[in-house]
UniProtKB/TrEMBL annotation:
Domain of life: Eukaryota
Region (Disordered): 223-268
Lineage, highest ranks first: Eukaryota, Viridiplantae, Streptophyta, Embryophyta, Tracheophyta
UniProt cross-references to InterPro entries, sorted A to Z: ASHR2-like, SET_dom, SET_dom_sf
Protein name (record): Os08g0205300 protein
Record organism: Oryza sativa subsp. japonica (Rice)
Length: 331
């Protein structure tokens, strides 16, 4: 069961983290958790999403009777948000009484800076919106999930199902990308896996206060050093990785070597190329993570992968197809 899959530990040089408390199967749900704190990403998002459950609002949404800025998708969500208390706070601290330079917008901005412990609940995926322009609808803090450390070749990824019906739509769901041995640290990527080395390092240093020294970064830092010594600009790209072969091993346990790999020299230069072929979604250029669906009741792998960004499903044999094309099961 998911509840016994992880244990917290103090890790040298990494702070607190979560380790596999037992062997974990690919696709297994290893953590499901309700948010301890949930708040809108910005005031601009209030008209588009329910202020209680953060589902997308329809034309039939009910406006908040106190402020008229927030909206609710149902009477139950409106009741859960305690509109009378909302009205009391608004009356006691009207905008003109706030300290100089302080505003509701600033409050939302300060909360949104809490990146070290919060997860973004994203707006619905739209193919026409480029990856860098996608926005969060809300931020959530989850007690155990906040202990998951970063790796540029993660062995797990998280899903949010904010618009699904029923309770628990803001819960975080963490699934294993591949088999994880007992005692191995379970890690997520804090951003899209196709980011370049210099962009990943800059983001981690500015928002999280550390430089990544994972296996992938160690390899790509050598590319940058080689480019600098050759007079290049050091701009390592995903295209370079994909063009130089896709038959290497992943940088973590549980990732198998691609069939037909003869152990060429290029595999030493690109040991993580197989990771991108297998786990990076290319549907609509969303570049989300493809995680296997949970194992079947008989314990066999599902052989179906789900993207944590666009929600697209793909068969395993189509992902590993030689042409590398977009072989989606459903749009």
């Amino acid at each position: 069961m998911a509840g016994d899959a992880l244990r917290a530990a103090d890790l040298p040089g990494r702070g607190r983290g979560l380790l596999a408390a037992r062997s974990i199967r690919e696709g297994e749900v290893i953590l499901t958790e309700q948010p301890l704190l949930l708040y809108p990403a910005s005031l601009a998002s209030l008209p588009s999403f329910c202020s209680a459950c953060f589902r997308s609002l329809s034309a039939a949404a009910s406006p908040c009777p106190s402020c008229r800025a927030a909206g609710f998708c149902s009477p139950s969500c409106a009741a859960a948000s305690h509109p009378r208390l909302h009205a009391m706070v608004a009356a006691l601290v009207p905008p003109q009484m706030l300290p100089p330079g302080f505003s509701p917008d600033l409050t939302a901005a300060l909360l949104s800076k809490d990146r070290t412990n919060s997860f973004s609940i994203m707006e619905p995926y739209r193919p026409e919106v480029p990856q860098p322009l996608r926005k969060a609808r809300a931020y959530a803090v989850y007690p155990r999930a906040s202990l998951l450390n970063h790796d540029c070749l993660p062995n797990a990824c998280h899903f949010d199902y904010a618009d699904r019906p029923g309770p628990g739509n803001t819960d975080i769901v963490v699934r294993a990308l591949h088999d994880i041995t007992e005692g191995r640290e379970v890690c997520l990527s804090y951003f899209a896996a196709n980011w370049q080395y210099k962009d990943r390092q800059q983001r981690l240093l500015e928002d999280y206060g550390f430089r990544c020294e994972c296996e992938r970064c160690q390899v790509e830092s050598k590319w940058k050093q080689d480019d600098d010594s050759d007079g290049g600009d050091g701009d390592d790209t995903m295209e370079e990785e994909e063009e130089d072969g896709n038959g290497g091993e992943g940088g973590d346990d549980g990732m198998e070597q691609e069939e037909g790999d003869g152990g060429s020299d290029s595999d030493d230069d690109f040991p993580h190329s197989y990771f991108f072929v297998r786990y990076l979604c290319n549907h609509g250029e969303c570049y989300g993570m493809l995680a296997p669906l949970p194992p079947l009741p008989n314990g066999e792998p599902s052989h179906v992968f789900e993207c944590n960004v666009c929600g697209n499903l793909k068969n395993e044999d189509e992902i590993d197809a030689p042409d590398g094309g977009d072989s989606s099961m459903a749009d």
